[in-house]
Design brief:
The protein is of the alpha+beta class and 200 residues long. The chain has a domain of 120 residues: Roll (SH3 type barrels), CATH 2.30.30.210. It is 30% helix and 19% strand. The protein has six helices and six strands. The chain has a six-stranded antiparallel beta sheet. β2 and β3 form a beta hairpin. The chain is elongated, with a radius of gyration of 35 Å. The mean pLDDT is 81.
Length: 200
């Protein structure tokens, strides 16, 4: 049991802690009314800033040769299983590629599909040396395709001013490279508009 003076000191100290913004006179004034409303101050939580993970710059990626295919890996036969996987992926994407499938539906799906593993042929080009190049797409960048030919040669073919054909289960689709200058990730979200005539 505490004495009256100890109790008074305790109450004063307790109120001071509970109402830190009020002066002693204000606290005494509240006590005389015999009604005390304790204030609650919540501590503001400081938000921790998320640190963004910094990736490599384009220059660093080139220096590290991240996207380069080693010469001993540049063989057409190595990537044939990739082509078989791509064919199955397109069949699933186009719901089986049945004979009654609408060509424009297949075309619209191919425009947004991942082309890594597809066998393409350059059918038209402003540079005659590109015409006839056929092979499996190993890498797709914004402006170029990297294609491995049956002769085990890695060709870098620009999209600009070239027309490519893709054949799967009897469906032949044409890709106008000049209208296709996007990264694969950007292309999947792009809405392609139907145009009447397209030229190189």
């Amino acid at each position: 049991p505490q004495g009256s003076e100890e109790a008074k000191a305790f109450v004063n100290a307790f109120l001071k802690r509970s109402m830190p913004k009020k002066k002693d006179e204000a606290i005494q004034d509240i006590l005389t009314r015999k009604a005390v409303v304790l204030e609650h101050y919540s501590k503001k939580k400081t938000k921790q800033k998320r640190k963004k993970t910094k990736g490599f710059t384009a220059k660093q990626r080139r220096e590290m040769r991240l996207f380069e295919i080693e010469p001993e890996q540049q063989r057409y036969t190595i990537f044939l299983p990739l082509h078989e996987l791509w064919k199955q992926y397109i069949r699933d994407l186009c719901h089986g590629l049945k004979p009654d499938a609408q060509p424009h539906m297949v075309q619209s799906k191919l425009l947004k599909a991942d082309l890594h593993g597809a066998i393409v042929t350059v059918t038209k080009s402003k540079c005659p040396s590109y015409v006839g190049i056929t092979g499996i797409i190993l890498q797709e960048f914004k402006h170029v395709f990297k294609i491995i030919t049956k002769e085990d040669k890695l060709k870098v073919v620009p999209k600009l001013n070239n027309v490519f054909s893709v054949e799967i289960d009897g469906f032949i689709s044409y890709i106008y490279g000049s209208k296709f200058q996007l990264r694969a990730s950007e292309r999947s979200a792009k809405k392609f508009k139907l145009k009447g005539t397209i030229d190189l």
